[in-house]
């Protein structure tokens, strides 16, 4: 490494040049050696290779391969140097977790998929794969590149009558970490035995199994183009009941809430089976859980509410819940533009069908919210819904509001 590189000051301490990456000139945190013998920080050399470079940055010699060998000796020296300079505010770099070796991943997948292997060997291999996939994105990519999805699906559905199979449960836990292709989703959705098996897992004694099953169902629904296949899945009553129960009774688990909302939204995209969601108690559950959700999940929940409000039974269910209208009014302009649009759409549907909902909306302060909405930078669709709702509620406004309505009746906000 050229000695002309200026020392790097870190917390007013000069960093030895041989501790610095030749590419970034920063202190190396995970030094690795390439085929030319030069050492770089892993992140820097991976970025170099990712941009199409095929030569060593220092020597300019062609890289025969891109195998990166961890330089443990140099890393320990850097860590010792950090400890020695702790008094100057230098923090010791952590020992990095090495990415999974492709050979080891192949071996684990082979152990897990070989039926003749003892149960303990297959189960241990699946648990190890799950741990590797959770450790880092690099491990996830390595596992994904070895046809892991096909192997995991084979293990998961090898005996659909065995709902208590620990192997199936572990395979499911790993499989839900990957995005399935359309053909893989179709392969699951077109097999009624597989769909029924997943619906049964929604009522498993293990919370993780229940949530993982809901996650896979959502993935399959979102990954298929065939509306007929989606309809066949949505026609399984147990799926709506299971997903709704996850939202209703597992609210203390953030992942359960997130997956439950995503799955219910995917199920309700199909209009002809939305009544099943209402029958399963989805309307009441969505309202009860709305304030527990973060931004993205709240948007999906409100989108689902608007979808269910488009059918008579959904409107009736939401209208009968005392908190529905006040919560929807409160949501306007509070979460996001999308959330505001969905809330306004749901209110429009409810107020069109129920005079009581109109009175509840006015009592909750919807007039002020809607006037602010039509003057905001929200979406055009949200503004149109707000204008329609203002016009619909005109007869329900309090007398003092009507008396003072000349202040905006002739403006460009809402043409009456």
UniProtKB/TrEMBL annotation:
UniProt GO MF annotations: ubiquitin protein ligase activity
Write the gene name.
LOC107908899
Q: What does this protein do?
A: Functions as an E3 ubiquitin ligase.
Keywords of this protein's UniProt record, alphabetized?
Transferase, Ubl conjugation pathway
Give the matching PROSITE patterns. U_BOX
Q: Give the CDD domains listed for this entry.
A: RING-Ubox_PUB (cd16664)
The Gene Ontology biological process annotation of the record reads: protein ubiquitination
High-level lineage: Eukaryota, Viridiplantae, Streptophyta, Embryophyta, Tracheophyta
Give start and end of each U-box domain. 14-88
Protein name as annotated: U-box domain-containing protein
Q: What is its EC number?
A: 2.3.2.27
Q: Which InterPro entries match?
A: ARM-like, ARM-type_fold, ARM_PUB, PUB22/23/24-like, RING-Ubox_PUB, Ubox_domain, Znf_RING/FYVE/PHD
Q: In which pathway does it act?
A: Protein modification; protein ubiquitination
- Answer yes or no on keyword Ribosomal protein: no
| Bilayer-crossing regions | none
The reaction(s) this protein catalyses: S-ubiquitinyl-[E2 ubiquitin-conjugating enzyme]-L-cysteine + [acceptor protein]-L-lysine = [E2 ubiquitin-conjugating enzyme]-L-cysteine + N(6)-ubiquitinyl-[acceptor protein]-L-lysine
């Amino acid at each position: 490494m050229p000695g002309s590189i200026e020392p790097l000051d870190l917390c007013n301490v000069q960093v030895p040049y041989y501790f610095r990456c030749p590419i970034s000139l920063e202190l190396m945190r995970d030094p690795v050696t390439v085929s030319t013998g030069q050492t770089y920080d892993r992140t820097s050399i991976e970025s170099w290779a990712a941009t199409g470079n095929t030569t060593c940055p220092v020597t300019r010699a062609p890289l025969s391969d891109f195998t990166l060998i961890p330089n443990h000796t140099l890393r320990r020296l850097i860590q010792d140097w950090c400890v020695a300079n702790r008094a100057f505010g230098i923090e010791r770099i952590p020992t990095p977790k090495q990415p999974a070796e492709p050979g080891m991943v192949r071996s684990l997948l082979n152990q897990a998929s070989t039926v003749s292997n003892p149960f303990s060997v297959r189960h241990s291999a699946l648990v190890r794969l799950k741990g590797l996939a959770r450790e880092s994105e690099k491990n996830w990519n390595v596992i994904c590149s070895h046809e892991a999805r096909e192997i995991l699906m084979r293990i998961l559905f090898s005996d659909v009558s065995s709902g208590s199979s620990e192997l199936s449960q572990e395979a499911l836990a790993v499989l839900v970490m990957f995005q399935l292709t359309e053909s893989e989703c179709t392969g699951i959705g077109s097999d009624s035995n597989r769909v029924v098996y997943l619906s049964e897992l929604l009522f498993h004694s293990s919370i993780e199994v229940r949530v993982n099953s809901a996650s896979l169902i959502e993935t399959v629904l979102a990954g298929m183009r065939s509306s007929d296949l989606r309809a066949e899945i949505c026609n399984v009553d147990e799926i709506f009941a299971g997903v709704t129960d996850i939202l209703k009774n597992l609210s203390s688990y953030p992942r359960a809430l997130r997956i439950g909302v995503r799955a219910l939204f995917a199920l309700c995209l199909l209009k002809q089976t939305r009544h099943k969601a209402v029958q399963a108690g989805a309307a009441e559950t969505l309202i009860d859980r709305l304030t527990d959700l973060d931004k993205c999940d709240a948007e999906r929940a409100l989108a689902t509410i608007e979808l269910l409000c488009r059918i008579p039974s959904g409107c009736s269910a939401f209208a009968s819940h005392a908190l529905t209208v006040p919560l929807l009014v409160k949501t306007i302009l509070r979460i996001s533009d999308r959330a505001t649009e969905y809330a306004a759409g749901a209110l429009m549907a409810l107020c069109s069908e129920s005079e009581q909902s109109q009175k509840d909306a006015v009592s909750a302060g919807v007039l002020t919210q809607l006037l602010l909405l039509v003057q905001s930078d929200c979406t055009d669709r949200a503004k149109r819904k707000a204008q329609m709702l203002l016009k619909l509620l005109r007869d329900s406004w309090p007398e003092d509001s009507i008396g003072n309505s000349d202040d905006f009746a002739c403006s460009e906000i809402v043409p009456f």
